[in-house]
């Protein structure tokens, strides 16, 4: 039933709508009906009693398979959506069956929070059935395959017949061959034979790849079966032509075609028998052939006689009746032949458009709905368009008024006919003040309010806002506008807001809605006072009219009137006047321009801000302007300005510091990651040599010469490995992302020999022939970095071994070449040539980039960093590296390095480390050393090394026991202390501090040497600060140990 907010006029309009119409009140996710028009009960087959107790969330009568989808869509609408369109099955009580119902709904939220849902129900059952009829696809049944030879004399002789054709024709394969062996057309029905021959001849000259022919074939029982023969022509050398035929039984398909034809005829019959008082034109056309088949014109305008029987001409003529140019073009783009056929190809079988037309025999126009269903014509496959044109003028006006029916919170809603100077109240709040009568003369009502009601200061604005001429002028672009005024309600000044919205200006129809905004205006004044304490100024722009109101802090606090203007863009020069310096005046104006503000808010509805320099008398300040919507309907734009000079200064300082810290952190992190990744590859090579030589030494334990050779090679590889590990642990190098080259004497033959001792076992294990060839070297000794050169060459040689298949060879040549600039310089070339898999050009182009590897070597382990390390080290040494390679032909690397020559009197070949001459006597003989070491194996190794020099050792397992042993012995008992750092109970640093702090005479002078696996510079520094005399890194190097003991014990002596 209708609420008091609905009057009789509105009810009469809604009652005339042919579709079911409902208005629901939304309360806590449930729907309560307020109004149902008569068509509602007819469409849904409901009784009035059902409607009174029905809540939509109960889903009375909804098919159980459709209920979940309806619940989901309805929840989406009630959860914040604006519209709903859903089709489901509802049980029709009168018909006793389920009917397909299309539900279209629109949710409106009013100012007081009340929500209404407007829903339209339409029965689309027949439409769904028709769509289903014409969506059926015809499927071919399995058939047979035949290969025939097309002779020059025109005869067709079969070469192959499949079992499938025999099954299709109800014969055995033997009988089929007997029937067709002389002529492949023997079994064709006599009535079809001539047509089949014509189709075959047409196919042979058409040049097409495929061809289809339908005809009848003889069955074993004497009857005939309809088949579709799909032909493919193959021409062989010498001009021989063969046709490959695929047969499909078409009996059921032809029966289906007959059924579809009957449905098609029934569809057209129902269409032309449609009885609807709003139908203007019905008919159907063959769009493919551009021909009108039948057309019924109920307009009385003689459309068929005026526009002709050619379909394209007829629809072009119809388009001239469309008043709006854009609608006219859209009509043509929808219903003319080419776009209609294109739509059918895309599967768009229903074309609907609502347009405003003016018929030749009418003074005023009307709204019509043009519906065209596209179907495929049985047999021919032509596209048929079934046309219906409906008059929807009253429905359109009713719908547009319904869109304004968010009536809760409005004093009234009125439909104004400017041409007749009349109005009708659609809805009103009877409790509101000064509401007009239900209908009357528009201009009379305006004059009466101007004389008594509207306060004097607002009368001119009220008159201008409701003047018919001004209304049409302001609404001509289709935009709503709003104005406010104050009126006297028995001594209480109330503020009203009138919204003027176009319904259809071609018919002179507009909608007026008035709301009371007194409370919101008063609340706005309170909010402005709050804003005044946090911001400098606030401005409000009416997005529709462009009017502008601006409040400054002084205006609000001193209750001064705000600055107002009817055109915001006209004050842009004044608004942008003091902004500038780095920003031009025109740029500032563009930032404040209303079009710019609206465009940015469309991109960021939540609002945005920008900061501009602001020049005052003696300084430059920075102002932040926040731009945001002032209401939920996006009708008002708010500008709020604050001074952010001090805040920006603090933020910039903090940001600068954070960016600097972040940059340093990233650089350190990248350096660590790159360096550690590179080392991962290089550490494995000497480890392989160590493990391999250890295995060989065990296997040849009875051969002292072989064991000694293995131990020498293990020593060389372990030395190289130790150097690599020391570099990994050099944290200062990693953090600075720098590698410092050492300057040391290098004896090239020894270096080549050491590299060979590392690579040769790998090559042997891989089944490769490895050649190490020193070339002509005039200057065998030069200054350079042994570790880095070894790293370069081992990396390249390691790759050669990895990427060369078993049975191949790796050749390493070291030679001195001309080209060194200046005296005292030598240039060396190192050539590594393999017979491996080689590389493609695209791989060579990026070979020295990090992580680059050929796709062909995914089976080979590696990080892809090796050659990037090689390139970096070579560049650091001022040398060059190049490569030549072809797939499956091997690869050759050339490394050229320069070095300062060591004079012949300053160098000697490297030899194995030997014990000092004083070992076993002299300086070390009889000396006693206290060792603090918690690891038994490490302690055993150190004791054995020292015993070889004649040193007596005592071992304690932690720092506390070592301190106790030192002070328990008489002064001078121990000649030195070897102190491990990381030990239980007490570490080496603490033990050294305790000893040094004691007053005993030898506690201050006894040599204390730190032993630790930590190679950081900070660890060395900490050891020195704890009172130690020297630092030895683990694993212990024998020569370094003897040299260190000689230094500290010699100094003591």
TrEMBL record:
Residue ranges constituting the PAC domain according to the UniProt record: 211-262
Domain Histidine kinase, first and last residues per copy: 678-901
Limits of the Response regulatory domain: 928-1049
GO MF, one annotated term: phosphorelay sensor kinase activity
InterPro entries recorded: CheY-like_superfamily, HATPase_C_sf, HATPase_dom, His_kinase_dom, HisK_dim/P_dom, HisK_dim/P_sf, PAC, PAS
UniProt catalytic activity: ATP + protein L-histidine = ADP + protein N-phospho-L-histidine
Gene3D superfamilies: 1.10.287.130, 3.40.50.2300, Histidine kinase-like ATPase, C-terminal domain, PAS domain
Keyword DNA-binding in annotation: no
Transmembrane segments: none
UniProt cross-references to Pfam families, sorted A to Z: HATPase_c, HisKA, PAS_3, Response_reg
Domain of life of the native organism: Bacteria
Keywords (A to Z) from UniProt: ATP-binding, Kinase, Nucleotide-binding, Phosphoprotein, Transferase, Two-component regulatory system
Modified residues (4-aspartylphosphate): 980
E.C. no: 2.7.13.3
Function, as annotated: May play the central regulatory role in sporulation. It may be an element of the effector pathway responsible for the activation of sporulation genes in response to nutritional stress. Spo0A may act in concert with spo0H (a sigma factor) to control the expression of some genes that are critical to the sporulation process.
The name this protein goes by in its record: Stage 0 sporulation protein A homolog
Organism: Clostridium symbiosum
């Amino acid at each position: 039933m209708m609420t008091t907010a609905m009057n009789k006029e509105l009810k009469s309009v809604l009652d005339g709508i042919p579709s079911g119409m409902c208005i629901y009140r939304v309360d806590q996710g449930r729907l309560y009906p307020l109004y149902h028009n008569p068509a509602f009960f007819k469409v849904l087959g409901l009784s009035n009693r059902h409607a009174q107790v029905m809540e939509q969330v109960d889903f009375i009568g909804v098919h159980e398979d459709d209920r979940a989808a309806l619940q989901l869509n309805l929840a989406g609408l009630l959860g914040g959506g604006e519209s709903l369109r859903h089709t489901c099955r509802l049980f029709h009580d009168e018909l006793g069956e389920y009917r397909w119902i299309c539900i279209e709904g629109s949710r409106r939220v009013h100012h007081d929070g009340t929500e209404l849902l407007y829903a339209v129900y339409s029965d689309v059952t027949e439409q769904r059935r028709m769509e289903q009829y014409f969506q059926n696809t015809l499927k071919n049944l399995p058939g047979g395959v035949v290969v025939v030879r097309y002779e020059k004399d025109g005869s067709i002789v079969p070469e192959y017949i499949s079992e499938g054709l025999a099954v299709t024709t109800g014969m055995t394969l033997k009988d089929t061959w007997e029937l067709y062996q002389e002529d492949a057309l023997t079994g064709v029905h006599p009535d079809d034979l001539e047509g089949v021959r014509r189709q075959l001849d047409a196919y042979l000259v058409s040049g097409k790849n495929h061809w289809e022919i339908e005809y009848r074939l003889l069955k074993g029982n004497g009857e005939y079966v309809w088949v579709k023969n799909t032909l493919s022509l193959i021409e062989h050398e010498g001009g021989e032509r063969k046709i490959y035929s695929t047969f499909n039984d078409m009996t059921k398909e032809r029966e289906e075609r007959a059924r579809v034809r009957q449905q098609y005829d029934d569809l057209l019959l129902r269409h032309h028998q449609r009885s609807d008082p709003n139908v203007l034109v019905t008919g159907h056309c063959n769009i493919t052939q551009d021909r009108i088949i039948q057309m019924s014109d109920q307009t009385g305008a003689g459309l068929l006689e005026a526009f002709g029987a050619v379909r394209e001409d007829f629809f072009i003529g119809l388009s001239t009746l469309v008043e709006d140019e854009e609608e006219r073009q859209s009509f043509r783009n929808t219903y003319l032949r080419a776009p209609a056929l294109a739509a059918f190809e895309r599967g768009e079988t229903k074309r609907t458009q609502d347009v405003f037309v003016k018929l030749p025999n009418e003074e005023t126009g009307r709204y019509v709905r043009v519906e065209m269903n596209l179907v495929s014509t049985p047999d021919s496959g032509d596209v048929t368009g079934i046309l219906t044109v409906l008059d929807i003028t009253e429905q359109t006006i009713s719908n547009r008024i319904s869109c304004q029916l968010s009536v809760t919170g409005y004093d009234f809603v009125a439909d104004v006919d400017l041409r007749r100077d009349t109005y009708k109240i659609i809805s009103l709040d009877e409790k509101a003040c000064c509401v007009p009568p239900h209908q009357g003369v528009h201009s009379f009502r305006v004059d009466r309010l101007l004389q008594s009601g509207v306060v004097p200061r607002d009368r001119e604005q009220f008159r201008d806002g409701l003047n018919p001429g001004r209304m049409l002028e302001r609404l001509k672009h289709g935009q709503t506008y709003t104005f406010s005024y104050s009126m006297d309600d028995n001594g209480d000044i109330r503020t009203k807001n009138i919204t003027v919205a176009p319904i259809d200006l071609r018919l002179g129809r507009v909608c007026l809605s008035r709301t009371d905004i007194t409370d919101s205006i008063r609340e706005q004044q309170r909010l402005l006072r709050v804003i005044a304490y946090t911001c400098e100024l606030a401005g409000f722009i009416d997005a529709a009219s462009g009017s502008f109101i601006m409040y400054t802090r002084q205006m609000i606090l001193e209750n001064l009137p705000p600055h107002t203007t009817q055109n915001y863009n006209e004050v842009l020069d004044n608004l942008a006047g003091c902004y500038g310096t780095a920003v031009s005046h025109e740029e500032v104006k563009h930032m404040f321009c209303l079009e710019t503000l609206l465009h940015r808010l469309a991109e960021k509805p939540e609002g945005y801000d920008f900061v501009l320099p602001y020049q005052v008398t003696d300084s430059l300040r920075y102002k932040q302007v926040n731009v945001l919507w002032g209401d939920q309907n996006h009708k008002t734009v708010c500008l709020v300005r604050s001074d952010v000079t001090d805040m920006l200064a603090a933020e910039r300082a903090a940001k600068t510091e954070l960016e600097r810290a972040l940059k340093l952190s990233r650089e350190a992190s990248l350096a660590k990651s790159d360096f550690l990744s590179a080392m991962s590859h290089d550490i494995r090579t000497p480890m392989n040599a160590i493990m391999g030589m250890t295995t060989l030494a065990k296997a040849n334990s009875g051969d002292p010469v072989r064991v000694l050779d293995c131990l020498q090679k293990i020593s060389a590889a372990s030395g190289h490995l130790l150097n690599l590990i020391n570099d990994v642990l050099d944290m200062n190098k990693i953090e600075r992302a720098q590698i410092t080259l050492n300057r040391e004497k290098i004896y090239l033959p020894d270096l080549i020999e050491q590299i060979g001792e590392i690579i040769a076992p790998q090559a042997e294990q891989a089944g490769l022939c490895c050649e190490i060839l020193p070339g002509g070297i005039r200057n065998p000794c030069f200054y350079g970095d042994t570790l880095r050169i070894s790293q370069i060459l081992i990396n390249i040689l390691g790759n050669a071994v990895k990427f060369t298949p078993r049975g191949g060879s790796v050749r390493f040549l070291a030679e001195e070449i001309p080209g060194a600039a200046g005296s005292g310089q030598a240039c060396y070339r190192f050539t590594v040539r393999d017979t491996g898999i080689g590389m493609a050009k695209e791989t060579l182009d990026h070979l020295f980039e990090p992580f680059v590897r050929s796709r062909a070597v995914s089976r080979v382990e590696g990080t892809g960093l090796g050659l990037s390390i090689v390139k970096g080290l070579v560049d650091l040494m001022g040398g060059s590296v190049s490569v030549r390679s072809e797939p499956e032909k091997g690869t050759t690397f050339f490394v050229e390095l320069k070095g300062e020559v060591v004079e012949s009197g300053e160098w000697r070949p490297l030899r194995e480390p030997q014990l000092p001459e004083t070992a076993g006597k002299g300086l070390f003989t009889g000396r006693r050393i206290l060792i603090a070491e918690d690891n038994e194996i490490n302690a055993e190794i150190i004791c054995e090394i020292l015993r070889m020099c004649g040193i007596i050792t005592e071992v304690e397992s932690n720092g506390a026991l070592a301190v106790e042993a030192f002070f328990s012995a008489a002064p001078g008992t121990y000649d030195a202390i070897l102190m491990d750092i990381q030990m239980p109970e007490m570490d080496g640093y603490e033990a050294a501090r305790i000893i040094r702090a004691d007053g005993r005479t030898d506690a201050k002078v006894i040599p204390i040497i730190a032993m630790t696996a930590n190679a950081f510079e900070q660890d060395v520094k900490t050891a020195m600060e704890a009172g130690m005399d020297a630092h030895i890194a683990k694993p212990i190097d024998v020569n370094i140990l003897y040299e260190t003991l000689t230094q500290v014990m010699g100094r003591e002596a």
